[in-house]
Design goal:
There is one protein chain. By secondary structure, this protein is α+β, with helices and mostly antiparallel strands. The protein has a single domain, classed as Alpha-Beta Complex (Spore Coat Polysaccharide Biosynthesis Protein SpsA, Chain A), CATH 3.90.550.40. The protein has eight helices and 14 strands. The chain has helices at residues 3-16, 34-46, 67-81, 166-172, 191-201, 222-239, 241-248, 253-260; strands at residues 20-27, 55-62, 86-90, 94-95, 109-113, 115-117, 127-129, 131-134, 140-142, 152-154, 156-157, 161-165, 206-213, 215-216. The strands form four sheets. A seven-stranded mixed beta sheet has the order 2-1-3-12-5-13-10, sandwiched between helices. The protein has a three-stranded antiparallel beta sheet with strand order 9-8-11. The chain has a two-stranded antiparallel ribbon with strand order 4-14. Helix 6 packs across helix 7. The longest helix has 18 residues, at 222-239.
Length: 263
Amino acid sequence: MGWAERARRKFQRSIEKKPGILLALPSLEGFSRTEQVLRALVAGALSARPDFPYIVDPMVLTSRYPVSDARNDCTQHFMENTDHEYLMFWDDDQIPPDNWGDLIGKGDIVSGTTFMWSASRPPIKRLQVNQFKINDQNISETLSPRLEGDPYEVDVVGTACMVIHRRVFERLGPRPFSEPVGPDGRRSMGEDMAFCRAARAAGFRITVVPTVHFDHVKSVGLFDMLQWGMAMCTLATQQGYQKGFDDATAGSPQAFGAKTGAA
């Protein structure tokens, strides 16, 4: 897109008073789920209506490993080829809800609520919400999920369903995602944690809107599910359902696994 076209579109949006959103669907495998793509296309079509609050530009981008390169390709395209205010990530394993637009205009970096699954953890810790706090030892700890209520701030959140304002990339650059490597040559943290830490160090805030629920589609073994379900039932019996659920979905997986004897 040339500068004249960008200027024209920016002027048009200033008249319509609609924020522009690049809806990025990064796909490492070369495809995205049909429902996800259709929702993005519908959002793009609806944005032509005068009563629709946003201008939506959907983009499915086939990229390469590592995932930080996939995200950087999206952000570079966003900065160099659009004049939109917001970049929104829908990962190719995330199914967006109808109220995804509630994430727009809530802050510098905003996420909905989504869960993650890790079969390598103790059974009771396999299902976690993708939100974290940084403790006094500079280690990220999983937070307890909130599925309702007002928006709240966190230290780190996953990039799977994230809205980022343009000013963040103006400060951090067009390719801000990386996967740091430790002294042993192994990856020390994911690109989402590294990005959030850099953004917070630059003075930006990270917000979660708990009422926007993205469904994280995963392939999970039934035996893994059985182990998790049995561990949850045991914990609920011992502590009561709500406290058991809060304890199971927050804190340090290693510490909690040792405390409960989960393996």
